[in-house]
Design a protein that fits this description.
single chain; 86 residues; Arc Repressor Mutant, subunit A; 4 helices; 16% strand
Length: 86
């Protein structure tokens, strides 16, 4: 069953808050925090990236990881979201 627009927006906002809690998260950590699978989170991150709210950084290692971090614009929006929910 497809999710509603309201549910999608809530998920985007929750993702911004999770990503903003630290210095970034990898896709697996984000999936766990949101209770979604990796393909769903990958699509979500694509949306956030296209809006200029997050950026991906490839980290070398074994295995290599992709870290997602908030951009300045993403930090501003996450700050506004925190103010509204607090």
């Amino acid at each position: 069953m497809p999710i509603t627009l309201e549910e999608h927006v809530r998920l985007l906002f929750r993702a911004l808050l999770v990503i903003g809690e630290g210095e970034g998260v990898n896709l697996s950590e984000l999936a766990t925090a949101l209770g979604k699978n990796r393909p769903q989170v990958y699509t979500l991150v694509n949306t956030l990236e296209s809006l200029g709210l997050v950026a991906r950084e490839r980290v070398k290692g074994l295995p290599p990881k992709t870290i997602v971090r908030l951009t300045d614009r993403g930090r501003k929006l996450a700050s506004c979201i925190k103010e509204v929910i607090d």
